[in-house]
Design a protein that fits this description.
The structure holds three protein chains of three kinds. Helix content of chain A is about 70%, strand content about 5%. Chain A contains 13 helices and two strands. Chain A has a two-stranded antiparallel sheet with strand order 1-2. Chain A is globular, with a radius of gyration of 24 Å. Chain A starts with about 25 loop residues before the first helix and ends with a helix. Chain B is mainly alpha-helical. In chain B, helix 10 runs antiparallel to helix 13. The longest helix of chain B has about 35 residues. Chain B starts with 8 loop residues before the first helix and ends with a helix. Chain C is α+β, with helices and mostly antiparallel strands. The relative contact order of chain C is 0.17. In chain C, strands 1, 2, 3, 4, 7 and 13 form a six-stranded mixed beta sheet that branches. A three-stranded antiparallel beta sheet of chain C has the order 11-8-12. Classes of the chains: A mainly alpha, B mainly alpha, C alpha+beta. Chains in contact: A-B, A-C, B-C. Chains A and B meet through helix 1, helix 2, helix 4, helix 5 and helix 6 of A and helix 1, helix 4, helix 5, helix 6 and helix 7 of B.
Chain lengths: ~325, ~280, ~450
């Protein structure tokens, strides 16, 4: 296995070294276009318009009269107003806490479970099927059911902790526990996502390296840090980035569990956007919020990726 | 399959069983809720006599069109997964193995990322207007295209990882043997990325199966999917927990079957990979 | 085949026959337009406890007239988005929009609803139908709901208001009287308060789309408080932080503290209702639409033990249930014949006969004729007498399309005050200030009171 194959997402394969030498350049040239064009077409038709529309609208106030749209240009006013929007600022703070806490826990748990699962020969099908169950359940059901489980008067969680004489808690209603309770639901819901992807990646690793390590008498930890982790970096990074993005968009759970309360303790960004964009129908301001959110997440991603690059350069 | 250095199997099983209990507890609670009366669920009673009327209500009552919703979800889920994976596998292969200039690959993946950052609910209105303008609103085509697009960034990135794990040497050998691109894709790439393809397919299917805001906006009665039906049980004045749980229980089935079937492909893909 | 009345049996049979044959021929000739006088219509509505009743009445309409009605039923979350999609497109999908009190004014102001009398000048609202605090009328020039200068925009569909539900069995056991004033309510709630087995009253305090604010209105208006000075005359001076407003909020919190649930600040509507059906509440004040759960043995252990009355009030002020009602409006962007067909449906819907049938089907009628009918004496329909008393007193809270922004402010600050995070005076002053800002931004004639001493 050539080490050049283990490559991060920030450096896509290009150039002579990575493409196989082709016997038929003509064939390759046409197939090159044919294979990429579906992606380009889908993106061009279905993503550029909505995004461009959003960017455009963020410079207007949108109203309606006599059944048609009335656009009032306001320049950068919508962007200036964002800094006075208390819900959005609280949302950013909570979302960052939520994303960091939930994503790290899910990655660690998912990787651990995948690693263990890959080490057994019997029952792997069973474990995989069980661990995947939570992502099969629609978010709205998860919200409703966990809300019942967290219920103060008759929820199963208070019943269980009552057995060991811990007083009943108002999990979703207390400032101290509300965000944590939402994070726990998210960990339960999304660890399987990390597990499934990381297990697929572990299973795809070449066996000869492990056999060689075995012969050399490598310990479990040596094997983990010297072989498994380095070879899995691309998969780990992609899983992490995807989980992070989806966590940033968290909505379903908050919508049914807390609606952002108590106060603004569980207000998250996409909930604020939903509130401003849809409930209040402020399309211009809501678009500006979306644009700023995208910008913030992009910054975070750049930071994550460059941290990894530095780490790699140092290694 | 992988090394078993230093870790005893029963230990691993014990840990995994512990995780199983945590994961499966709430699922059993949800499935169980489908067999209870609402008042028994609300009273927090532990034991209950299972009854089937929630399932009857969901499947056969006059206002529920669950079987129709189920069929719609199957159509949308499977076709959008097929479309999404075809586009993504071709695209990922092209981007990572066909000598595109860096900027092309970077901008496509970067765009995928930016697009993926938008909350889907913010796209729903714009897509509705687009599809209505071309007369595609309230059709499966619209919903399939929308779901394939929503999941394309994830599929593209994941398939990128899996495609890059395919050793270049194998590809070169096939080229030297005179394989054309389609033959190469069919005989070398796809078998080798099978575990990844299967995992991606499962995820794309599940995301499409559970997607709510876009499905709601792009569908009418005849094309509504399962989550739209389930959401109807969360009403303004009443959450019908037990009907909701029953319909959620039923909705788990296809994805679970898919997962069990896909396992075989994952294993087959692995063996094929080992044999090469 | 324009037959809008029933009761006369021969046209009814004729229309049934015609309707059936039309259906048969329509089914056998797909794609070909049928020559018929009343076009098929599509109604967009959301799933709710009273939807079953509406579906039943629509089926009755189809059976009696042979006209075709399609119902597009949506989850509550998202039904507004679907209506917006339709009315903002070049041609609409839906002919009749079933609009909530939270968004009807957005539809009126945006010009998305065609006045009924513009479609059919002969149309008149049945005198027995409650005008829902005149919200069916709209004067586009002033934005007010003045029945004199305004046009008839919509037909009341479900006049939902909150009522006080109390445990009748416990009232007898403890020898309590049905409460008239807020003081009575506090005393009765304290009498039934026995935590944690049972709370005297369970109130909403959670932040939500329209949650704690909606439950607070009967207390605010019942104490003589108001959010705005006079919306109908265009005076949007914010009067929320008046001494009466403070009295109301102090009372709401006192009730929770002395006879309520310890976690009032985190309770939403579903949990309030759950408390009642599980026997954990002596009183709840909630929307009539939640009523059917109380008497359903699958959902409740207090079947036949609950009764209702209008919300209490402070001495000298009337009871003030707040409208959370549904209105039917005809979409502006649908063909004329479908608009006509929609008016036909309204004509039929408002008749006393239809409304009594609607009640029997499980709906909440809009016509006082239904509340005066014999069925109102039956135990099963014991909610009808308080509805009849409450409807004429009910108040509509907002008449302007930007109300969602005001509601969001109320939800957050009321929640914080009930959680004890801020004092009532600070909460009221903050809300007033922020609401004033919103009204100013949209150019309404507005002003503020002296802030309350904090």
């Amino acid at each position: 296995m050539a080490t050049s194959e283990i490559r991060g997402i920030d450096e896509p394969a290009a150039g002579v070294k990575t493409g196989p030498a082709s016997a038929n350049l003509q064939d390759e040239a046409s197939w090159r276009w044919l294979t990429l064009s579906p992606t380009v077409i889908v993106f061009a038709l279905l993503t550029i318009l909505p995004l461009a529309n959003m960017l455009y609208m963020s410079f207007f106030n949108v109203g309606w009269a006599q059944g048609s749209m009335v656009l009032t240009p306001v320049g950068l006013q919508n962007y200036r107003d964002i800094w006075g929007d208390n819900l959005f600022l609280a949302g950013i703070r909570n979302t960052l806490i939520f994303v960091v806490a939930a994503t790290s826990a899910e990655m660690v748990l998912g990787f651990g479970l995948a690693l263990f699962c890959s080490r057994i020969t019997r029952g792997r099908t069973f474990y995989r099927a069980v661990f995947i169950l939570p992502i099969l359940i629609p978010g709205i059901v998860i919200g409703a059911i966990w809300k019942l489980m967290y219920n103060f008067d008759f929820g199963i969680i208070n019943q269980l902790i009552g057995i060991v004489s811990i007083p009943a808690q108002d999990w979703l209603g207390q400032y101290e526990t509300a965000l944590l309770s939402v994070i726990i639901v998210d960990i339960w819901h999304w660890t399987p996502f990390c597990f499934l992807l990381l297990l697929a990646s572990i299973e795809g690793l070449p066996q000869d390296v492990y056999e060689a390590a075995k012969i050399d008498g490598a310990s479990f930890w040596q094997e983990l840090f010297r072989i498994t982790l380095p070879m899995m970096w691309p998969a780990i990074l992609v899983t992490f980035v995807f989980r992070m993005i989806v966590a940033f968009k968290v909505f379903d759970e908050v919508f049914l569990l807390t609606s952002g309360g108590p106060g603004t303790a569980t207000e998250v960004v996409s909930f604020t956007i939903y509130q401003r964009f849809f409930t209040e129908d402020r399309i211009g301001f809501g678009s500006a919020l979306s644009v700023v959110t995208i910008f913030i997440v992009l910054m975070l991603l750049v930071l994550t990726l460059s941290a990894r690059k530095r780490r790699k350069a140092g290694a | 399959m992988t090394g078993t250095v230093g870790v005893r199997t029963w230990w691993v099983h014990l840990l995994l069983i512990g995780a199983v209990v945590i994961v499966i507890g709430p699922v059993i609670w949800i499935v169980g809720a489908g067999f209870r009366t609402q008042i028994s669920l609300l009273m927090g009673q532990f034991w209950f006599d299972p009854e089937l009327f929630n399932f009857e209500e969901v499947l056969f009552s006059k206002t529920s069109e669950y079987l129709l919703n189920f069929r719609n979800s199957l159509i949308v889920g499977s076709l959008s997964t097929a479309l999404c994976l075809t586009v993504a596998t071709l695209g990922a292969y092209s981007m990572h193995r066909m000598r595109w200039p860096r900027w092309v690959v970077h901008s496509l993946l970067g765009w995928a990322l930016i697009f993926h950052l938008i909350p889907p609910i913010a796209l729903a209105g714009a897509w509705f207007a687009m599809f209505r303008n071309v007369g595609l609103d309230n059709t499966f085509t619209a919903l399939i295209l929308a779901h394939a697009t929503l999941n394309l960034p994830m599929a593209l990135w994941l398939m990128g990882v899996f495609v890059r794990e395919v050793p270049v040497e194998l590809e070169e050998a096939a080229r030297i043997d005179g394989a054309t691109t389609p033959a190469l894709l069919r005989q070398v790439i796809v078998p080798l990325v099978m575990p990844g393809l299967a995992a991606t397919a499962v995820l794309v299917f599940i995301f499409s199966w559970n997607e709510f805001p876009v499905a709601l906006n792009l569908s009418l009665k005849q094309t509504a999917t399962v989550p739209v039906a389930i959401a109807k049980y969360a009403q303004d004045f009443e959450i019908k927990y037990t009907e909701m749980a029953a319909s959620a229980t039923l909705s788990i089935i296809p994805a679970l079957i898919l997962l069990l079937v896909a396992q075989r492909y994952i294993v087959r893909g692995l063996t094929a990979g080992a044999l090469k | 085949m324009r037959i809008s009345r029933f009761g006369n049996s021969s046209p009814r049979v004729l229309s049934l026959l015609l309707g059936t044959s039309m259906l048969v021929s329509a089914a056998s000739l797909p794609g070909r337009l049928q020559a018929q006088e009343v076009a098929p219509i599509t109604i967009v509505i959301n799933q709710s406890p009273w939807f079953e009743g509406f579906r039943c009445i629509v089926e009755t309409y189809e059976d009696e007239t042979g006209n075709v009605v399609e119902l597009d039923v949506n989850p509550f979350a998202g039904s507004l988005e679907k209506q917006r999609n339709s009315v903002r497109a070049a041609d609409g999908l839906y002919d009749i929009l079933i609009m909530n009190s939270g968004w009807y004014s957005e539809m009126y102001h945006g010009g998305f609803v065609t006045p009924i009398t513009d479609i059919d000048p002969s149309f008149e609202l049945d005198p027995a139908v409650d005008s829902n605090d005149d919200t069916v009328y709209f004067d586009a020039a002033t934005g007010s709901s003045d029945p004199e200068s305004g046009k008839l925009m919509s037909m009341p569909i479900a006049p939902l208001i909150p009522l006080l539900m109390y445990r009748e069995d416990l009232y007898e056991e403890y020898g309590l009287e049905v409460p008239e004033t807020f003081e009575d309510l506090l005393n009765n709630a304290q009498a039934l308060h026995n935590p944690p087995e049972r709370y005297g009253i369970v109130q909403r305090g959670a932040r939500g789309p329209h949650t704690v604010a909606y439950d607070f209105y009967p207390y605010l208006y019942g104490h003589g408080g108001k959010i705005f000075a006079d919306q109908n005359s265009g005076d949007f001076t914010v009067t929320l932080n008046s001494p009466k407003g403070k009295q109301a909020l102090d009372y709401y919190i006192q009730l929770a503290a002395e006879a309520g649930h310890p976690n009032t600040a985190s309770l939403d509507q579903a949990e309030v209702i759950q408390a009642m059906v599980t026997g954990k509440a002596g009183h709840i004040m909630t929307v009539i639409a939640a009523w059917p759960q109380m008497d359903d043995p699958n959902k409740s252990i207090v079947v036949d033990k609950v009764n209702l009355t209008v919300p209490p009030h402070a001495p000298g002020y009337p009871s003030a249930p707040a409208f959370g009602h549904w209105l039917g409006g005809i979409s502006h962007n649908v063909p004329e014949e479908r608009k006509q067909a929609a008016v036909e449906f309204f004509k039929w819907y408002q008749t006393p006969e239809s409304q009594i049938k609607f009640a029997e089907c499980g709906g909440v009628p809009v016509s006082l004729a239904a509340y005066d009918s014999e069925i109102s004496n039956e135990r099963e329909f014991r909610w009808m007498a308080p509805m009849k008393k409450g409807l004429p007193l009910a108040v509509n809270i907002y008449t302007f399309p930007e109300a969602a922004e005001v509601i969001a402010i109320l939800e957050l600050e009321l929640n914080r005050a009930i959680a004890g995070e801020t004092s009532t005076a600070v909460a009221l002053n903050t809300m007033a200030e922020q609401i004033h800002e919103v009204m100013q931004r949209y150019g309404y004639r507005t002003g503020m009171l002296e802030p309350l001493a904090e």
